[in-house]
Amino acid sequence: MSKKRLFARGGAASLASSLIAIVAGLAFGLIILFISNPSQALNGLGIIASGGITGGMKGIGNVLYYATPLIMTGLSVGFAFKTGLFNIGASGQLQVGAFVAVLVGHNATWAPQPVLWAVALLAGMAAGALWGAIPGLFKALLNVHEVIACIMCNYIGLYGINFLVKNSNIYDSLKNQTVNIPQAAIPKWGLDTIFYDLKGKFVDASSVNGGIIIAVAVAVAVYFVLNKTTFGYELKACGYNREASRYAGINEKRSILYSMVIAGALAGIAGGLMYLAPANGLHIRVEEILSPQGFNGISVALLGLSNPLGIIFSGLFVAYIGQGGYYLQKLNYMPEIIDIIIAAIIYFSAFALLVKNLIASAGHKRSARRELGAGAEGVNGETGVREGETGL
After folding, report:
1. How many Å apart are CA 341 and CA 22, to the nearest integer?
2. Which residue has better confidence, 178 or 259?
3. How many whole angstroms separate alpha carbon 374 and alpha carbon 155?
C-alpha cells in the first residue's frame, strides 16, 4: 500500500470518527432540548448549529476569542497524548502561567511597552513549563503516575496562586483580584476592524485579539516538531513503546520529562493569552475552582484526535457551539443547557479514537485480503508458465 493511500485512509477515518462523535452529541442534546422545552427544541438545535454566526461578525470574532485558550490547552493535552502521557494538569499549569504573565506584565518596567505583552507571555510559558516539569520528574524518576501528580499540582497551583495574589503588589483587596495592566495587553493586529457589528452610529466590536493568530502558529509549530523532527519522533516512539525505545537507545526518562515540560509550556501560554487579553480585564481573580479551560482542553484534544491541526478545528467547534448556546436563552432555555450538550459531545468524543481504530482496522483487513488474492493469482500464473516450460 502506498504512503499516500495510507495517509488518505487514516485521515478519512479520523474525520469520520470525529463527525460521529459530534452528531451523537448533538442528537443527545436534541433529546435534552425536547425534555426541557418541547415546543422550541428544533429551533434551539438550529440556534446551536448556527453557533457564532447568529451574532454576525461580532459573534464570529467572539468564537475566535473563546477558542484561543481551548486550542492551547488542547495542544497541551494532545501533545502529552502523542507521547504516551495524560496531562490532566493543564488547568493548574494555565493558572500558574497566567499569574506569572500578569505579574511580569505589571512589574517588568524595563521592557519597552510595545513588546511588554510578549515578555509577559514568555514568562507565563516558562512558568507553565516548570509546573509541568514537576509531574514529569515524578514520572521519570519515581514512576509516579502522571495523573495523580497532575491532580495534586492542580490544587497546589490553585491555592498557591491565591496566596501569592493576596500577598503581591498587584492585589486589589476591594475587588479581590489583581489590578488591571492595560500596558501589557495583547495587540489586536487589526482583527477588531474585521469582526464587529454596527449598531446605528456605534461600533460593537468583538473580543477577538491577536491571541488566535498566536495559537494557530503554535499549533502549526507543534505539528512540525512532532512529525518532521527527530526530537518529535523520539518522543512519540517513547510513548508507543518505552521498552523498545530504550533498546533503540532513546533516553526514556528524558523524553518523559521533555514531554511534560512542553505540555506545561503550552498550557502556560494558554494562561497568558487568556489573562493578557484586553476583553478579560487583564486581572486574575482569587478563585475557588480550577480553570474549566484546562479540562475542556481534554475534550478538544480527544475530538481532534491529538492531531495539532485537528485541535485547531475542534477548539473552534467547541467555542462555536458555546456561542450558539449563549443565544439559547432567547428561547427561555437555561444557560446550563449548552454545558450539558458540550459535555455529551465530550463524552462521545472519548470514543472517537475507538471508532477510528475500528474503521482503520476494517480498511487494513480489506487491503490485506486484496493483496493476498493478488499474490495467489500471481503464484498460479507463474506456476502455469513453469509447467509449460517443463513440458517443452
Report:
1. 10
2. 259
3. 60
pTM: 0.84
Among residues 331, 361, 380, which one ends one of the domains? 331
In a domain, residue 226? The reply is: yes
| Total count of domains within the chain | 2
State in Å, rounded, how far the first CA of the chain is from the last one. 38
Q: pLDDT by residue (tens digit) across 360-383?
A: 666 666 666 676 666 655 555 555
**What is the rounded CA–CA span in Å between residue 263 and residue 190?**
30
Of 134, 103, 119, 123, nearest in space to 263 by CA? 134
Confidence of residue 309 (pLDDT cuts 50, 70, 90): very high
Taking the C-alpha atoms of residue 165 and residue 156, their distance in angstroms, rounded to an integer, is: 14
How confident is the model over 85-101, as pLDDT tens digits? Answer: 999 999 999 999 999 99
Contact assessment for residue 291 and residue 91, using Cβ atoms and an 8 Å cutoff: yes
Question: How much is the pLDDT for 225?
Answer: 94
Cα dist from 264 to 127, 158, 254, 329, whole Å: 8, 15, 15, 36
- The model's confidence at residue 201, banded by pLDDT at 50, 70 and 90, is low
Domain that holds residue 6: 1-37+333-370
User: Which of 239, 238, 236, 237 has the alpha carbon at shortest distance from 226?
Assistant: 236
d(Cα 157, Cα 176) in Å, to the nearest integer?
Answer: 18
Candidates 379, 382, 345; CA nearest to 24 is: 345
pLDDT at 347 over 80: no
Tell me the three state secondary structure of residue 189.
coil
